[in-house]
Design a protein that fits this description.
The structure is a single chain. Helix content is 36%, strand content 9%. The strands form two sheets. The chain has a four-stranded parallel β-sheet. Strands 5-6 form a two-stranded antiparallel ribbon. Helix 2 crosses helix 8, helix 3 packs across helix 4 and helix 6 crosses helix 8.
């Protein structure tokens, strides 16, 4: 692709555009707004509180920069504080009530729909608010039937992301483990502390047939399973693994945004 056809990061930011330009983008076929969501919550003794937010924003900006400059897609400012009650017992965690997050998505979505935008992608980096944002998306779609709403999770969907993560870390490294530590070593190594914790076995074992996440999940608190705040094994983390993860995330989400922009989803809505 011709580098001159690539947008600058500021061209994609809705809040930096004048109103007439934002209105012009909204009026284009398939106009899409992406809203990155993160969290401010403990990530063990070695990763920053804003890990999920940093990942969502860095991946999203890299994806948007690879899309053609004429693509009608913009982003909102990062929603850095989210729904993190499972980490509340660890210092530094900030969490919003679920009701406030639901209302926030509903009100912002209504404004975007009124402005003429046709799609809103909730680009979420925090696993603990996946279900909440899915509920918010359903409520918003019900309130604004002409606005397509797509709630997604940074780590779910793109192919090849987990190829280099061995078991049991692939399925059990849920928080501040190998993947997140490696990705932070690639994106912001100055924010990574020297510790490489392994934790997540504290407390009674999960009942057979149940899991922390998956088909039969428990509504767990981090303190149920971890003394350090880490759920996983960060000992093998490296910037090289982080580079693989970043490239796979960006490539996977680029393909999904290209597919979305080329589609007519959801089509005309019958009132």
């Amino acid at each position: 692709m011709n580098p001159q056809a690539l947008p600058s990061p500021t061209q994609r930011r809705l809040e930096l555009l004048p109103a007439p330009q934002a209105t012009a983008v909204a009026s284009e076929k398939g106009s899409t707004v992406v809203w990155p969501f993160g969290a401010v919550e403990q990530h063990g003794p070695h990763l920053p509180l804003g890990t999920d937010a940093l990942f969502a924003e860095r991946v999203l900006d890299a994806v948007l920069q690879e899309l053609p400059v004429e693509a009608p897609i913009l982003r909102l400012p990062l929603q850095a504080i989210g729904f993190s009650p499972e980490h509340r017992s660890f210092a530094g965690t900030l969490t919003l009530p679920a009701e406030l997050v639901l209302q926030l998505v509903l009100e912002v979505g209504r404004g975007l729909a009124q402005a003429g935008f046709q799609r809103l992608v909730l680009f979420n980096g925090h696993g603990g608010q996946i279900g909440l944002l899915q509920v918010a998306a359903r409520q918003l779609r019900d309130a604004c039937p002409d606005l397509a709403v797509l709630p997604c999770f940074l780590w779910s969907g793109p192919e090849g992301v987990w190829d280099s993560i061995p078991e049991p870390e692939r399925s059990q490294g849920l928080h501040a483990g190998l993947a997140e530590t490696s990705l932070m070593l690639q994106l912001a190594p100055e924010l990574v502390g020297p510790e490489r914790p392994v934790d997540g076995q504290a407390g009674p074992a999960i009942p057979e047939g149940w899991s922390l996440e998956g088909a039969a999940p428990c509504a767990w608190l981090t303190s149920d399973v971890s003394g350090s705040g880490v759920i996983g094994d960060a000992r093998g983390a490296s910037p090289e693994l982080g580079q693989h993860l970043f490239k796979a995330l960006v490539a996977g989400w680029r393909r999904r945004f290209e597919s979305l922009l080329a589609s007519d989803w959801p089509g005309p809505h019958s009132h």
